[in-house]
Design goal:
Oligomer: single chain
Shape: globular
Strand order of the largest sheet: 5-6-7-8-10-12-13-14
Strand content: 5-15%
Largest sheet: 8 strands, parallel, barrel
Structural class: alpha/beta
Number of helices: 16
């Protein structure tokens, strides 16, 4: 049975008028020594693509989907078939899922695990037949009311134990399906008020949870990368994984930084008051950049809109950070994005992914050109040139102190700063985007 009346998506170049074709993403094109497919490692988010219905806080589902007439485990099975048809027709190498995306919860944890086992067996068969691989899986520990006070930071030890059992099963699933990463997203790991919160205990318990996960992964032979996905505010007012810097500090404090890297999302950066490239840079210079969720937010709205990324400027700067990182390792570009509520037809899922994938392909090519030309490197080197010789070089080498610096300052009455020329830089950056 076919669920989508769409032919396989292929690269046809910028001249094509075919809306079901890639204009920039040529997976075999070599950029800086690797193919586009190897650079981007594109993944589809199961939740938005297969389970999203188009609802919002003010309205019900609008999406028309070929599997809408099914329910329960039957619905989950049909979605698996539709998913792999979609992945194959997009010609992408990876997908990602939460446990509750692919299989429904049962009346008990045992029944829930049995449901998951049925679907995992189907996923494994489909992966073998199609060659599509699992970029990462994770546990949904935020939707069910049991997680009202959090999962690994809950005030209820019974819930903590349930969360541990759920992640244990998730890691076993990761091994079964050959996941290249496992993600922790603390959607409920935060607090509303300090008036009823033991902040230190919650953070300590979160660290204990992660250490137990590391130990169990080693026990069962999971060799994939552990990732934490920072996100501020939504839904908790004070989330413990607010942004890259906060999350890195937490990992370093609890001795977890050798076991985890970060999965960074563009829209989460926006909610934290940062640009995406800022979050990527913070992770990169700390050796913690592991993977990304590709989307964009609406700056006029204050929540996580998860739009498909079409902003070439932002994506170019993101890809620059990834290339300067030496690539994304075992991570990838997961399209954690959803079609707009008004884009309710099945074909819109293809248009959206094509747009996002082409944007990243374009951003990759522009970023590669910037690196080949040494564009930003020359700018930064010139701006900080006073630290390359004289007193600046002594500061960098650690061969000076306050006494020597004071003597230098007293003898150097004239200080000349140079313009940062930011407007000129941005104008030249635009030219790179237009020319590639």
């Amino acid at each position: 049975m076919s669920y989508f009346n769409v032919q396989n998506i292929q690269f046809e170049g910028r001249q094509t008028k075919n809306p079901f074709a890639y204009k920039h993403y040529n997976k075999s094109e070599v950029v800086l020594g690797k193919t586009m497919e190897e650079h981007l490692r594109i993944g589809v988010a199961y939740w938005h693509t297969l389970t999203g219905g188009g609802s919002d806080p003010f309205g019900a589902d609008t999406a028309i989907r070929p599997w809408s007439g099914y329910s329960g485990l039957d619905l989950a099975k049909v979605r698996v078939e539709a998913a792999f048809e979609f992945f194959t027709k997009l010609d992408i190498p990876y997908y990602c899922f939460h446990d509750r995306d692919v299989a429904p919860e049962g009346g008990t944890l045992k029944e829930t695990n049995q449901n998951l086992d049925v679907i995992v067996a189907m996923l494994k068969d489909q992966m073998k037949a199609s060659g599509v691989k699992l970029l990462w899986n994770t546990a949904n520990m935020f939707s069910n009311p049991r997680f009202v006070h959090g999962a690994a930071t809950t005030s209820n030890a019974d819930v903590y134990a349930y969360a541990a059992a759920q992640v244990k099963k998730g890691l076993e699933t990761a091994v079964e399906l050959g996941a290249e990463n496992y993600v922790f997203w603390g959607g409920r790991e935060g607090y509303e008020s300090l008036l009823n919160t033991n902040l230190e205990l919650e953070l300590d318990n979160l660290a204990r949870f992660y250490h137990m996960a590391v130990a169990y992964a080693k026990e069962i032979g999971f060799t994939g990368q552990f990732l934490i996905e920072p996100k501020p505010k939504e839904p908790s007012k004070h989330q413990y994984d607010f942004d890259a810097a906060t999350t890195i500090a937490f990992l370093q404090k609890y001795g977890l930084d050798k076991h985890f890297k970060l999965n960074l999302e563009a829209n989460h950066a926006t909610l934290a008051g940062h640009s995406f490239e800022h979050e990527l840079r913070v992770a990169r210079i700390n050796g913690m950049l592991g993977s990304i969720d590709a989307n964009q937010g609406d700056l006029l709205l204050g929540w996580d809109t998860d739009e498909f990324p079409t902003d070439v400027y932002s994506v170019t700067l993101a890809m620059y950070e990834i290339l300067k990182n030496g690539g994304i390792g075992s991570g990838g570009v997961n399209f954690d994005a959803k079609v707009r509520r008004s884009s309710f037809e099945p074909e819109d899922l293809f248009h959206a992914h094509i747009a996002g994938i082409d944007t990243f392909a374009k951003g990759l090519k522009v970023a590669a050109k910037l690196i080949e030309d040494g564009y930003f490197e020359r700018i930064v080197e010139e701006r900080y040139s006073t630290f390359a010789s004289g007193i600046g070089a002594e500061i960098i080498a650690g061969t000076t102190d306050f006494h020597k610096l004071e003597q230098y300052a007293l003898a150097n009455d004239t200080i000349r700063n140079k313009s940062g020329q930011l407007e000129r830089i941005k104008a030249e950056l635009n030219e790179y985007m237009f020319s590639v």
